[in-house]
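Inverse folding, one chain.
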C-alpha cells in the first residue's frame, strides 16, 4: 500500500461550544464556517482543546459527525480518537470512520505510561485497523508519556501514519523529527509558539489553538512560510506571540472560549473540573485583541 497523501497547513484544534452545559451544535456549525471562510486548512475535532476529556463517547462522536457535516468537504476534518487503552482507541477509530472523519489524531496513551515497545504496538494496532490517515500526537506535559523519535521512525513505515503533532515545545526534538522522518510523514507543530521556528526547519503546518481566535492570521503565517516569504511569516509570529501565551495563562480551553465570547462566537462554558477564565484574564484578552484589531 502506497503512503497516503499528507495533510498540512493551519489546522484548528477547534473548541467544542456548550450552552448551559449541553453541546451547542448550532454554535459549532457557525464556528466551522467562520474558520473555513478565514482560510484554515483543516479542523481537528474533539482534541484536547475540544474538551475530549469531559465528553462522553456519544457526545464525542456526535461532535465529530456535526463537524463533518458543517465542513461539507471544504477542508479535512481530523477526529481526535485517542485513548489510554488500545481497545478504547480502536472503538473511537471505528466510530470516527463511521462519522465521516477524513483523518484521525491519536495521542499517546496517558496515565499508564507505556514503554516505547508498548507505544509502537498501540499505534501499529490502530493503523492496521483503519484505512484513514493517522496523525500521531506527542504531548508529554499532559500524558506523562514521550513518543521518542526512533519509535516515530518505526511507525513511519505504516502507510497510513502520515504525520505527527509535536507538542514537546522542544526545537531540538523537532529538528530530529524533520531529519529522520520528514520524507515519510508530515511534522506539525503542536504549540503555536513553536509554529514559525518549526516551519523554518521543515515542519509543514500547525495544529493551532490561536487560530480559534485569529484564524486568518495563523493561516496567513503558514501561507507566507510555504511561499518562502519568511519576513511576513516572522512578523505574524511576533504579532500573535502575546495572544498565544495568554490563551494558556489559565487551563485551556477556558481562555480560548473567553476570547471567542468576546467575539460573540461562543459561550464561556467549560465543564468541570475546568472553570471559566477569570475576569482579570478576560480583560487582558480584551486589551490584547483590541490591539491586534481582532475586536
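Residues assigned per position:
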Amino acid at each position: 500500500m502506497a503512503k497516503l497523501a499528507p495533510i498540512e497547513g493551519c489546522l484548528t484544534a477547534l473548541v467544542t461550544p456548550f450552552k448551559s452545559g449541553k453541546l451547542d451544535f448550532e454554535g459549532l456549525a457557525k464556528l466551522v464556517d467562520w474558520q473555513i471562510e478565514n482560510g484554515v486548512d483543516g479542523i481537528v475535532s474533539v482534541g484536547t482543546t475540544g474538551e475530549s476529556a469531559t465528553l462522553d463517547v456519544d457526545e464525542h462522536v456526535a461532535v465529530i459527525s456535526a463537524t463533518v457535516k458543517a465542513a461539507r468537504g471544504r477542508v479535512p476534518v481530523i477526529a481526535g480518537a485517542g485513548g489510554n487503552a488500545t481497545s478504547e482507541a480502536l472503538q473511537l477509530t471505528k466510530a470516527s470512520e463511521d462519522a465521516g472523519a477524513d483523518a484521525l489524531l491519536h495521542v499517546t496513551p496517558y496515565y499508564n505510561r507505556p514503554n516505547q515497545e508498548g507505544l509502537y504496538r498501540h499505534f501499529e494496532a490502530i493503523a492496521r485497523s483503519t484505512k484513514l490517515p493517522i496523525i500521531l500526537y506527542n504531548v508529554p506535559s499532559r500524558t506523562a508519556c514521550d513518543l521518542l523519535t526512533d519509535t516515530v521512525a518505526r511507525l513511519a513505515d505504516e502507510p497510513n501514519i502520515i504525520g505527527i503533532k509535536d507538542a514537546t515545545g522542544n526545537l531540538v526534538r523537532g529538528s530530529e523529527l524533520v531529519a529522520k522522518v520528514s520524507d515519510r510523514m508530515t511534522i506539525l507543530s503542536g504549540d503555536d509558539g513553536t509554529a514559525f521556528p518549526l516551519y523554518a526547519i521543515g515542519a509543514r503546518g500547525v495544529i493551532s489553538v490561536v487560530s480559534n481566535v485569529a484564524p486568518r492570521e495563523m493561516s496567513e503565517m503558514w501561507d507566507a512560510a510555504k511561499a518562502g516569504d519568511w519576513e511576513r511569516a516572522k512578523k505574524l509570529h511576533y504579532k500573535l506571540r502575546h495572544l498565544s501565551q495568554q490563551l494558556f495563562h489559565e487551563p485551556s480551553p477556558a481562555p480560548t472560549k473567553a476570547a471567542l465570547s468576546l467575539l460573540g462566537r461562543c459561550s464561556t462554558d467549560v465543564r468541570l473540573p475546568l472553570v471559566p477564565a477569570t475576569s482579570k484574564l478576560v480583560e487582558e484578552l480584551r486589551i490584547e485583541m483590541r490591539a491586534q484589531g481582532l475586536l
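The chain has a mean pLDDT of 97. Residues 9-229 form a domain with the TIM Barrel fold (CATH 3.20.20.70).
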